[in-house]
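Structure ticket #2291
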Amino acid sequence: MRTIMVINAKGGCGKTTLATNLAGFYSAKGNSVCIADFDPQGSSLDWLKARPDDRNEIIGIDASNGTFRTPKNIDTLILDVPAVVHGKVLTSLVRRAQSLVIPVMPSPIDMRAAAHFIEELLLVGKVNRDEVKLAVVANRVKENTLIFHTLEKFLKRLKIPKIATLRDTQNYIRAAERGLSIFEMAPSAVQQDLDQWRSLTRWLNSKRSIAE
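Resolution: structure written out below.
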């Protein structure tokens, strides 16, 4: 079973948007997909409630109490983790994943928070031993702005790869309102976004994202 966690201790960085779109991507590929939502707000589960019946089923699990059982015959498990996760709770969560995707937004507050969080992550046993692979996604970016270039420089200084840059667009909101991912919308309307996701999905589907 492929296990991908979307995580960042900073709230409002787009974790659920990434998690639901990852679920939609793998579902569109014909995989049996499950989202475990660890956030008491249950945003991923709300997305699933809005999902049309004629789309591929994605199973949702309320994992807000920290425990859950993955259904049988699941190909891909997406873990949507809430903000403000540290210490033993963080260590326990990381044990569940093969790959960690960390969204970072282009703001000084978000970049400082991400730096501190990544430092903490690198001290977690499985991460420190390279048993879990990390990647950063620059999220909700307006290119050719000063803060975007600042974010690019910041990410280059990190000790983990920046895999993708995702633009700030209403397409994600339109998809979320309908319980869909951008991979399930008309390609002509979301082609630029699909192009931006390609580097992330390529990484997740490669051996580079899973420890040997």
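Closing remark: The helical segments are 15-28, 43-49, 87-94, 108-121, 125-128, 146-157, 171-177, 187-204.
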